[in-house]
Amino acid sequence: MMDDLSKKYDLMVPRYTSYPTAPHFSDSVTGALYGQWLAALDPATPLSLYFHIPFCDEMCSFCGCYTKIVKRYDPVADYVGVLLDEIDLVAKTLPGRFKASNLHWGGGSPTMLKGEDWKRIIDHLRVRFDVTPDAAIAVELDPRTASEDYIRALQDAGVNRASIGVQSFDADIQKAINRIQPYEMTAQVIGWLRQHGIDHINMDLMYGLPKQTTDMVIREAELTIGLKPARVALFGYAHVPWMKSHQKLINEDDLPDAGERWQQFEESSAKFIEAGYVAVGLDHFALPDDEMSVALDDGVLQRNFQGYTADLAPAMIGFGASAIGQLSQGYIQNLSPLKQYRESISAGILPIARGIAISDDDRLRGHVIERIMCDLSVDLDEVCDKFSVSKATFVPEMEKLAPLAEDAIITIIGNTITVTETGRPFVRLVAAAFDAYLDSGKGRHSRAV
């Protein structure tokens, strides 16, 4: 049955890390408008801060992130200076001194920073923001470029969570995706992290990679479980060469078909469940006592551009080239070309490339989509009451969902939609029924499973 479903619903839909999704951002949102949005923030609002480090020392062929390949430190050092200037620019625009409860570094590879850069950046942030004593300070870490001295520098800077990119432990797959990272290397770095007090560890795996088989994915899950991370993200490889030209290096004939992708996801997921991990949303797993599992149990799990999160801060400010932020008024994305990003900040202009102002209908639909993606269930009557709209609002969407109910991907009782365990891999299709922008012809997306 599942093989039939995976073929039937082998469709292209958004990942729903925002609503509206990024393909619908436009240049109608400018630095000036973003400045107005920042200035309107209530100083009592806790902030989440995201920092994008757009550098790697080599390109992984599966990568979907904005990054530049550099072999020298000089461009990175220059970038750190500009990043600090952007922090100053945003802080001066805000109507007061704000608390920051979550700080997250992504990339690219934040490991391209030197150890001393971390103290410099964190110290600068503490001048501009009240970084709370219990703040989550998380870094995406590439084991290939991390030494024990580097881990010690992260500890000194207050980092308390690390996300380890693995993707696959198989040597042949690593060669196919241009990421040579032996198991022993990853295990050593995790050991250093724990030795230096950074014991909240996440690991990222992928399925659907070139040359990957179900047996390989099962083995990778077993090796990962042996390292005992607090969280695991099991991402489906998104082959989007029309957006990321370097993915053209991957031979499409080596990619598993829809049925094989589903089997890889299902078999590896089962391994994590058997090991005591809690399934979170579409593709995350967490130990029962981890904050993410607790947030799921409490019904407050969130989803943003970093994926699933227990971060409850209502506003996220993005720093760095291509970084995305989210305020109550809408979404904003920084300029990507480093030259333009640098020039904008040098001119004292917030470096915004595009964004979208969200409407009341966007907020309504975004709430429904987030609850489906996080809780795998939503009571539309409760949502309509919450947003003071007619309970007939979603009649067209309920009609769209009827085929999914017939295929046991969801159950519908009254106006409550619940994704079944069979349907978990298809949750993005359920969310897509509420996407008013999906049929507008903008953007191309990744496969649903």
Strand order, largest beta sheet:
10-11-9-8-7-6-5-2-14
Count of β-strands? 21
CATH superfamily of the largest domain: tm_1862 like domain
The second-level CATH architecture of the largest domain is: Alpha-Beta Horseshoe
Instruction: Find the structural class using helix and strand composition.
Output: alpha/beta
Domain unit count? 2
The whole-angstrom Rg is 21 Å
Q: What oligomeric state is this?
A: single chain
What is the overall pLDDT average? 92
The percent range for helix content is 25-40%
Poorly predicted parts: none
For the sheet with most strands, the description reads: 9 strands, mixed
Descriptive terms for the model:
449 residues; alpha/beta; pyruvate-formate lyase- activating enzyme; 2 domains; 15 helices; 22% strand; globular
Verbal overview:
It is globular, with a radius of gyration of 21 Å. The protein contains 15 helices and 21 strands. The protein has 449 residues and is an alpha/beta fold. It starts with a helix and ends with a strand. α1 packs across α9 (258-274) and α8 (214-227) runs parallel beside α9 (258-274). It has helices spanning 2-8, 31-39, 74-93, 115-128, 148-157, 171-176, 183-195, 214-227, 258-274, 291-298, 338-346, 360-375, 380-386, 395-406, 427-432; strands at 12-13, 47-53, 55-56, 68-69, 99-107, 130-141, 161-167, 200-207, 231-236, 278-280, 284-286, 302-304, 307-309, 315-319, 324-327, 330-334, 352-357, 377-379, 410-413, 416-419, 446-447. Helix content is 37%, strand content 22%. The strands form six sheets. It has a nine-stranded mixed sheet with strand order 10-11-9-8-7-6-5-2-14, sandwiched between helices. A three-stranded antiparallel sheet has the order 15-16-17, with helices on one face. The mean pLDDT is 92. A hairpin with a 2-residue loop joins β15 and β16. The chain folds into two domains: 21-357, Alpha-Beta Horseshoe (pyruvate-formate lyase- activating enzyme), CATH 3.80.30; 360-447, Arc Repressor Mutant, subunit A, CATH 1.10.10.920.
